[in-house]
Amino acid sequence: MTSSSLSSSVHNWNVVDNLEISDHRIITFDINFSVPTTPDITTTIKWNTNNVNWDQWSTIINDKFMNNNITCEHIRDINNKFDLDFLVSFVTTTIQQACDTTMRRYNRRRIKRHPWHNDGHLRELLHLQKSLYRRIRRCRDINQRTTLIEQHQQSRHQYRQRLNNFTKFDHHQLSYWLTEHMQYT
What we know:
This is Endonuclease/exonuclease/phosphatase domain-containing protein. The protein is an alpha+beta fold. It folds into 2 domains: about 5-35 and about 120-185, no CATH class; about 50-105, no CATH class. It has helices at about 5, 55-65, 70-75, 80-100, 120-140, 140-165, 170-180; strands at about 10-20, 25-30, 45-50, 105. It has a two-stranded antiparallel ribbon with strand order 1-2. Strands 3-4 form a two-stranded antiparallel ribbon. Helix 2 packs antiparallel against helix 4 and helix 5 packs antiparallel against helix 6 (about 140-165). The model has no long low-confidence stretch (mean pLDDT about 80).
């Protein structure tokens, strides 16, 4: 797990499969301290524009402009900085109010799902691993426990193979996700 500023400096991460300590895997990686860190890019998107009634949106803006006598002639007659600043502020506020009325706001802390989150088979394998692990802990019969352990190891192997099939992902995000979700398997 790394901070967002350090994650761009982490390279060559690898999960060590041949060394097993309980149910956890060791992750090795290199850190390049010579790479300058860059700040996160912040977005200015505030509203979800997928399902918007654009007619209502434009009506709200037109009504505000009409109520305040903002016309093309008024805009053309602006000849000083104060009036221009006032107009820009008014237009910005009007658009924001129209958006607040007609659109849902995005959650600022929303997290976009990664490809491995959307894979149903991967989720089923993870659920199976957790279920088998729970059954192993509760099992008292040695023969049945041995069978459950074998099934658990097979499901872990299938899960890892499936996870390795994803090629379009950020290694840093995947390593963080693995440390969060693999601790119970």
